[in-house]
Amino acid sequence: MTEAPPVPDNAIGEYTGDGKTLFWLALRTSLLTLLTLGIYRFWAKTRIRRYTWSATRLDGTRFEYTGTGLEKFLGFLMAVVILAVYLGVLQLLLVWFGMTIFAAPETPEQAVLQGMGLSVSALAVTPLVFFAQYRARRYRLARTRWRGIRCGMDKAAWGYAFRAMGYWALTLVSLGALLPLMTFRLEKYMTERSWFGDARFEQHGSWTGMYRQMTHLLIGLALVLGGLLTGSIGMATDQPALIIGYAGFAVGLVWFPIGVISWRVQSFAYLTRHKTLGGRVTFDAQPETKTVILAWVVGSIVLAVALSVATGIIGGTVATLLAGSGFAVETGNGEHLFLPIVLAALGYLLTLAATQAGALAAIVQPILKHYVTTLTLLNLSALDEIHQRAADPGADAEGFADALDLGGAL
Q1: Which terminus of the chain, N or C, has fewer Cβ atoms within 10 Å?
Q2: Residue 52 domain-assigned (yes or no)
Q3: Is residue 268 within 8 Å of 254, Cβ to Cβ?
Q4: pLDDT in tens, 294-340
């Protein structure tokens, strides 16, 4: 009698979302956002997240998003009030020291002081940007469930903000050479404060091990800089060096953005493969850079063609109706231009809404699907030992991220 084969103790991610369904959902919510002068965007983002979360499955179980538009809206209002007070106090301090960012400078000294005021203002807002990034991730985790178990994240946003400022400074001073250090340490800080039930995530690996993921980024940068240098030498010496320099620079301009995408994809894969949950559950991620780029290119082409056709049809129809009604003719005093201007504005807003919905369905969703379906959870049975955690109030519900326009991601 043969033994039954062992049941695999892993789970591969599945994504069941449909581009057409997501497009119409995003278009409806975008139009409602326009009609409510932007207020509905908090509910719109919530509905889209619920759709994408529920379309994502591991081990046959869907994820749940339990956030609400109301708590996001209230969090936004709270963040706006705090930011207004913070920036108001900052401006008073600048005025006290003779600096301002509003009045037009009348002398060179005032221009210098205004420049200093702008620099101080930007530097003062920077910690809030990183603070908002951490709080936004914490909110998303607090409103995510899988297998009925809540995720969560510790309150440590200010610690992240100050560390992020320090690592960004090191990265800028090193001209990007310490990008892996910043990426690894900041991800490690957030990962090791994240929870699934009562099990904590841990980030292993090393920042030096991420330099391999920078290969194409460094090649692109070398081609750009090398092309500029060779071209400069060629201008002073001979024509062949100039041609080689221009060619290397042109290739570098194409290679560098590909390198940026490769870095983002492969650094995500490296960090995911070196994460653990509760010391026993591990992960594997195998996203491909070429698949992400292809999805972006194909989606962009499809979106551009669809928008061109739709704009041509709608624009031609409107122009024909206006010509037939006489409103398209200028009379010299502008009295007949009101309707064309209104229709043009409405057409622009509809095009903008359709573009956002199309990009979400034709570009973002295929890339998200690729990430999900190339993710594997290993040692699945260890999840049975994880228990529920207490509900997290969700902090400011991404209020600072929305107020600083950082909350556009799924």
Answers
A1: N
A2: no
A3: no
A4: 999 999 999 888 888 877 776 666 666 656 555 545 555 545 556 66
* Alpha-carbon span 283 to 48, nearest angstrom: 26
Give me the phi and psi of 152, to 5 degrees please: -170, 175
The CA-based angle 23-25-29, given to 5 degrees, is 115
Please check whether residue 178 lies inside any domain of the structure. Answer: yes
Q: 85 CB contacts (<8 Å, ≥6 apart)?
A: none
73, 39 contact by CB (below 8 A): yes
Pairing of strands 56-58, 149-153: unpaired
For residue 156, the enclosing domain spans 77-205+394-410
- Domain membership of residue 347 (yes or no) is no
* Contact status, residue 350 vs residue 318, Cβ threshold 8 Å: no
**pTM given for the model:** 0.85
Place of tokens 């504005």: 345
Alpha carbons within 13 A on the beta-carbon side of 268: 17
Domain membership flag for residue 283: no
Q: Which residue has the tokens 């064309």?
A: 340
Euclidean distance between CA atoms 323 and 187, whole angstroms = 59
Whose CA is closest to 300, among 359, 219, 250, 228? Answer: 359
Show Cβ contacts of residue 297 under 8 Å, excluding neighbours closer than 6 positions: none
Based on the structure, what is the number of domains in the chain?
Answer: 1
Task: State the distance between the two ends of the chain, measured CA to CA, in whole angstroms.
Answer: 51
Specify the amino acid at residue 338: F
Residue range 166-180: mean pLDDT, rounded: 94
